[in-house]
Amino acid sequence: MKTYSTTYLNASETESMDRCPYCGGFVTLEPAVDYAPVYNRCDVCGKRFIVERVRNGITVMRIEGAPCMSDPECRITEMSQGDEE
Ligand SMILES: [Zn+2]
Predict the structure, then answer these.
(1) 62 C-alpha to center of ligand 1: Å?
(2) From ligand 1's centre to the CA of 8, what distance in Å?
(3) CA count, 13 A, side-chain hemisphere, 75
(4) Which of 78, 81, 82, 84 is the most exposed place for a label (fewest CB within 10 A)?
């Protein structure tokens, strides 16, 4: 007999599940092993979003709303540019 709890905060063992920032569907997150942000793809709507490990868990965000330091591609661009102009 399974009972499904609706208490989201109880799901501490399932911290790798979260809602897609685009469609709100539940997705399994695959964060990087370090604190670097990575792209994940939503199984529900097929869009890419950013998954980033933070101090108290894992955060997800839309690519277009993410700060550059949380966007994998933007970070790479920033780092490869260096600071010469
Ligand atoms: Zn989605």
Answers:
(1) 10
(2) 19
(3) 14
(4) 84
